[in-house]
Structure formats: structure tokens, C-alpha cells
Amino acid sequence: MADNLPQRIALLDFDAIQLSLDEHGFARLPALLNQTECQEIIEAYGNEELYRTTINMARYRFGVGEYKYYQAPLPACVQQLREGLYPGLAEVANRWLGLLGQSAVYPPSLSEFLARCHAAGQERPTPLLLKYEEGGYNCLHQDLYGDVYFPFQAVFALNEKERDFTGGEFLLIEQRPRAQSRGHVITLRQGEGLLFPTQHRPVPGTRGYYRTTLRHGVSTVTAGTRYSLGIIFHDAT
Ligand SMILES: O=C(O)CCC(=O)C(=O)O
Ligand SMILES: [Fe+2]
User: Fold this and answer.
1) Can you give the residue ranges of every domain in the chain?
2) pTM of the model
3) Residue 74: partners with Cβ closer than 8 Å, 6 or more residues away
4) Fewest beta carbons less than 10 Å away: which of 46, 125, 164, 188?
């Protein structure tokens, strides 16, 4: 493993990632975060000055668990993931728009994209740290926080299924127009990530591409505590 995170991101096989996104709608990432980095993120869960907002999921009927949105400036590794994953995803996002007959709208760098969010009044950072204890779960949802949104997001597993918790699989459900929905269950090992669509993806049909709608969530944690790191690219109002 390269010793710093930007290097590890630069070494990703983005051609394979693009192929997987095109074919399946999602792409697994190798362990970009090492065990020490995962541990440091988890240990900082109680370090309140790092976060702007804490959400008790049950209060909003989002599920059972808790998450915290990081405050600016983001911790270095969170900023590096957000900045480093954005450009390749923006290319796919623009290409996907083309498949649906729309023009490219996503600028090449995260800073340009965030400038657009900020101009639209979306100024609060959205990367988040999630914690689910036994009985915890996350209902199927989409992470949209205003008119400006980026069509991909990433999630990273910070601890290890079967060692630290059981259950708690990542769920991705694809709703096809006028057809039954399809579900994917994705289990990540500690430090591994997943790229997936925030809202839609193009799928080839008999008369060109059509859009399916995606929602994600987490199945019930049956024992232990599960931690994950969510990287959402658009900021929130
Ligand atoms: O905990 C998870 O794996 C899912 C978190 C989530 O909903 C997100 O990152 O947007
Ligand atoms: Fe989410």
C-alpha cells in the first residue's frame, strides 16, 4: 500500500472503475484507508469540535443509529478522498448525461463544483461519520441536500464485519421504471470503499438509454458496533 492517501487514490484503476460503474452502477474500491487511519477516524467520533451536526436517526425515522457531519475544515483524509475521487467521477457523470441526451455540467475539479454549491446557498459540508450499534440500521434513502447535487457518492467501511459487528450489510436498491426493483447487498472489508449513484443511473434499453432510480441503506446490525465514513460531494443548505 502506498504510504499516503493521495498516492493510493492516484493509483486506482479508474478504467476498471468506469467499466464497473457502467455495467453495474456501482464500483468497489480496494482498501484506500489502512487500519490505523480507520482507527483514528473512529477514535475521533467523540471529538465534538470536528463536527457541525449530530443526527439521531430514530428521531427523524431515518433508521436507528447516529451520524455526525464533519465541520469545515474537513480532516485531511476526508478532504483528500473527496478531492481525489471527484475528477474521475465527474468524467463518468458527464458521460452518463450524454447517454441520456443531456450536456455535460460537472466541472473538472471539486473546488469548482463546490463553488457552484456555495453560489446556490449550499455551504455546509456533507461528509459524515456513521455509527450503528446492535439493532441499528439505515433506511433506504438518497442523500440530496439542495438543487445542486453530484450524481455519485462514496462510502468506506471503518471496521470489520464478523470481527467488530455482524449484520450491517450495505444495501443498494435499483428501481426500474414499470418493473420490479433489484437489490444488491455489498459487504466491504475495513478500509474498503464503494462508489455508487446518488439518485439515478442510465441503463441501455431497446430504444436508447433510460434511467433507473437508486436508494441505499444498511441492514440491521445484529451484534457489535459498525462505523462507516460517507463522502458526499455536494454541500448542503
Ligand atoms: O453506513 C453506510 O454504509 C451507509 C451510509 C450512508 O448512507 C451514506 O454514506 O450516505
Ligand atoms: Fe446515505
Assistant:
1) 5-232
2) 0.97
3) 82, 125, 127
4) 46
